[in-house]
UniProtKB/TrEMBL annotation:
<dbReference type="GO" id="GO:0015344">
    <property type="term" value="F:siderophore uptake transmembrane transporter activity"/>
</dbReference>
<keyword id="KW-0998">Cell outer membrane</keyword>
<keyword id="KW-0813">Transport</keyword>
<feature type="signal peptide">
    <location>
        <begin position="1"/>
        <end position="20"/>
    </location>
</feature>
<comment type="similarity">
    <text>Belongs to the TonB-dependent receptor family.</text>
</comment>
<dbReference type="GO" id="GO:0009279">
    <property type="term" value="C:cell outer membrane"/>
</dbReference>
<dbReference type="Pfam" id="PF07715">
    <property type="entry name" value="Plug"/>
</dbReference>
<dbReference type="GO" id="GO:0044718">
    <property type="term" value="P:siderophore transmembrane transport"/>
</dbReference>
<dbReference type="InterPro" id="IPR012910">
    <property type="entry name" value="Plug_dom"/>
</dbReference>
<dbReference type="Pfam" id="PF00593">
    <property type="entry name" value="TonB_dep_Rec_b-barrel"/>
</dbReference>
<feature type="domain" description="TonB-dependent receptor plug">
    <location>
        <begin position="60"/>
        <end position="156"/>
    </location>
</feature>
<keyword id="KW-0732">Signal</keyword>
<keyword id="KW-0812">Transmembrane</keyword>
<keyword id="KW-0472">Membrane</keyword>
<protein>
    <submittedName>
        <fullName>Iron complex outermembrane receptor protein</fullName>
    </submittedName>
</protein>
<keyword id="KW-0798">TonB box</keyword>
<feature type="domain" description="TonB-dependent receptor-like beta-barrel">
    <location>
        <begin position="269"/>
        <end position="704"/>
    </location>
</feature>
Length: 743
């Protein structure tokens, strides 16, 4: 096998040399190899100062870190980071294909997956869907938490590392145009590196415009236990929106004569969007007895919206070399942001008479500051001890106003300022040790405390929430003797999921067609964090330079599970259905995860230049106190799978590739009264890459080729009444053309 791999490597090098000949200088005669005392050639050793390859970093990481660099990010020519993440092992994206949503690992819903930006929590309101892949250097995925990062990672951690400029020499200019239903979404990005003395920089920025159209059809039906239908409606919603923005991620790095390094990277996002929507409600009276017929809430609703947001976040660190190989890494950061949105909704009856007008305005202001550090010192050969701290302060001011056509507030606190302050303090220590050639171990301990307080209209409303978590962490790697490409991983960890600030103290979010299936949403200041004990294990077999076959599994035992409870409440505007988060008890989830990726040329001498990648995950979960068999964690599917390939044509500089992402239908028993069903998701993507030369290339891709409708149902049964909502969301094929130029 080693000979086959060697020949495959030579074949790959030869193929890459063919592509480089157009720009290469005339070849010279190869130098004769140096001979040793025994007359045999002396092996050449190449020393590189660059970062280890993605696969080497994954293999050598004791805590099980998977790294996906520029090759994976550039592979399909995706226009947003979410499309890339959905193809990675064990990662799923909420929402329907082509529209994205929250990022989930191991099928767990929003909040279980920790998302970091350069190792730090991103600013409030940040969305990965708005981040261009051109601004990202690599993505790190960690199945289990580690001490130096927050342990708010029951499902795992996704760490997005922005472009830092290593090995970056050329300026890069990229033009992209995505087309959906004939609507264009142009994007231009520019990357400019530079160096003067000890100062190096990498300036990265992009400007974009996006236009989208969505259509949703909903059937609402209320049925009594005796079979009598009280309501039968069809609602057709159409939305058109356009957005535009600019994203800047420059990076500065200065290396002092003493060897110290100072790095700073600001991150600026400016977004503006406008939209208008139309909602047609048709009341079907055929199934409803005449005596029970009620007039519809409206026949036509027209809504105009405008939103704008600006986020600025700065990351920096100072690396100071101490005596011996010790060093101190001090981090600092700041953030500020604001977002404003407003909407005006008109509701008419079937004669065109104005029934109601709603005006909604929301303003959010965020400020944050953070500091942290890590002291690292060796305490022996291949043995390092580290300790550090993290401090984060946040301040939010939120105002929401909701008025009807008579100027009457839609809820009691409309127009009041809500001020929230968060304080987070953490200390940690970790010990990483290559014990011998077979064993490597990691032990960590992290204490983290969070306190949230709030005031409303300048008055203390008594909303205060404090929590703290102590997380011991153990990771180990065993390299099988006599099999240098095989190793076994295992981890035993404590992690948690804290309630987000919106669930703790947010002002109400109103539903304009309020029902049990479309309730208002509010917060709960008494929420406690979910606590989880986790076990992870995996077997890994490495193939060639970039191949791997792995099989693993996990278990999470969760206490104080947070779930939203549905109640019918009396409000100033009458009875309304309200969804409120609460700690409901205990849950458990487990799963298996399989992955295989390799290059055929490394396994078969003279084989085709095809890269294959695939992964499959199977999940189980149960929530105590909720009847089965579908008493699963919110939004967790039973399975998910990805398969893809890339084929490099030797005669021409063309690469073709395709990938398929699949998630089956998901049925969740959310409570004893509510069942939520989501249809299967099949997203087929394909691309073609033509390299004119080493400096110019064009990429054509298609996402969501199948464009299947996303179906869903939500049924709530209370007090002898079943309220059903069936929804159909259309999805669309997105074509993209990207031209890349280096100069």
């Amino acid at each position: 096998m080693s000979k086959l791999i060697s020949f495959a490597c030579l074949a790959l090098l030869g193929a890459s040399d063919v592509y480089a000949q157009a720009d290469a200088p005339p070849a010279t005669a190869p130098a004769k190899p140096a001979l040793g005392p025994d007359g045999k050639p002396v092996p050449q050793v190449t020393i590189s100062g660059g970062r280890a390859s993605d696969m080497d970093e994954r293999r050598n990481s004791v805590a099980g870190k998977q790294v996906y660099g520029r090759e994976e990010l550039d592979r399909n020519g995706d226009s947003n980071l979410g499309d890339i993440l959905k193809r990675l092992p064990g990662v799923t994206i909420g929402g329907r294909p082509g529209r994205g949503g929250d990022v989930r690992m191991r099928g767990m819903g929003n909040g279980y997956t920790q998302v970091l930006l350069n190792g730090e929590r991103p600013p409030a309101g940040f969305s990965m869907e708005s981040l261009s892949p051109d601004q990202v250097e690599r993505v790190e995925i960690m199945r289990g938490p580690i001490a130096e990062h927050s342990t708010r990672a029951i499902a795992g951690t996704i760490n997005i590392i922005l472009r830092d400029g290593y090995q970056q020499k050329d300026k890069q200019l990229k033009f992209t145009d995505s087309i959906e239903q004939g609507r264009h979404a142009p994007n231009v990005s520019l990357t400019v590196p530079g160096k003067v003395g000890g100062l190096t920089w990498l300036l990265t920025g992009s400007v974009f415009e996006n236009r989208q159209h969505d259509q949703t059809e909903t059937t609402n039906r209320d049925t009594r236990a005796d079979g009598v239908v009280l309501k039968d409606q069809n609602v057709l919603d159409e939305t058109k929106r356009s957005s535009r923005g600019i994203h800047l991620t420059p990076r500065l790095s200065y290396k002092f004569d003493s060897g110290d390094t100072l790095n700073f990277q600001p991150f600026l996002m400016v977004n503006r969007s406008d939209g208008n929507s139309r909602s047609d409600l048709t009341q079907n009276f055929g199934l409803v007895p005449p005596a029970l017929q009620q007039p519809p809430e409206y026949n036509l609703a027209l809504t105009g919206t405008h939103a704008e947001s600006t986020f600025l976040r700065g990351f920096g660190n100072w690396v100071h070399k101490l005596q011996g190989a010790s060093r101190l890494d001090v981090k600092f950061g700041f953030g500020t942001g604001h977002s404003d949105s407003d909407s005006l909704r008109y509701q008419y009856d079937n004669a065109g008479k104005l029934l109601q007008r709603y005006t909604d305005d929301a303003t959010v202001r965020d400020r944050s500051a953070s500091s942290g550090g890590k002291y690292t010192t060796p305490i022996g050969k291949e043995h390092a001890l580290a300790a550090g701290w993290d401090i984060e302060l946040g301040h939010r001011v939120e105002t929401k106003t909701s008025l009807d056509k008579n100027g009457v507030s839609q809820y009691g606190d409309s127009g009041d300022n809500l001020t929230a302050d968060t304080r987070r303090l953490a200390v940690f220590a970790q010990d990483e040790w290559d014990i011998n050639q077979q064993w490597s171990g990691y032990a960590g301990l992290r204490w983290e405390g969070i306190r949230t307080t709030s005031t409303r209209a300048g008055q203390d409303i008594g909303n205060s929430n404090s929590s703290s978590v102590l997380s011991p962490l153990l990771h180990g790697v065993y390299r099988i003797p006599g099999h240098d490409k095989d190793q076994i991983r295992a981890s035993l960890t404590k992690s948690y999921k804290a309630a987000n600030i919106q669930d703790l103290i947010a002002l109400p979010s109103l539903s304009r067609l309020n029902s049990a299936t479309r309730p208002d949403r509010t917060g709960n200041p008494d929420l406690k964090p979910e606590l989880a004990t986790g076990l992870d294990f995996a077997y890994e077999h490495y193939l060639g330079r970039s191949g791997i076959i792995t099989a693993g599994g996990f278990v999470r035992d969760i206490k104080d599970l947070i779930r939203r409870e549905l109640t019918l409440q009396n409000t100033p505007t009458g009875p309304r259905w309200v969804s409120t988060p609460a700690n409901i008890g205990h849950a458990r989830t487990k799963g298996i995860e399989l992955e295989a990726k390799f290059q055929l040329q490394e396994l078969m001498a003279g084989g085709p230049a095809i890269d294959l990648r695939s992964n499959y995950s199977r999940f189980w979960s149960s929530v105590d106190g909720i009847p089965g068999p579908n008493n699963r964690l919110d939004a967790q599917p039973k399975q998910t799978a990805n398969v893809g390939l890339d084929y490099r044509l030797k005669p021409v500089p063309l690469t073709l590739g395709a990938s398929l992402n699949w998630t089956p239908e998901t049925v969740i028993q959310s409570s004893a009264e509510q069942v939520v069903t989501t249809s299967r998701k099949r997203s087929f993507d394909a691309y073609g890459l033509w390299k004119f030369n080493a400096r110019n290339q064009v990429r054509i891709s298609a996402n969501n080729f199948m464009a299947e409708d996303a179906l869903g149902s939500n049924i709530v049964t209370t007090n002898g009444l079943a309220q059903l909502a069936n929804t159909t969301n259309q999805t669309y094929v997105v074509w993209s053309v990207k031209y890349e130029m280096k100069f």
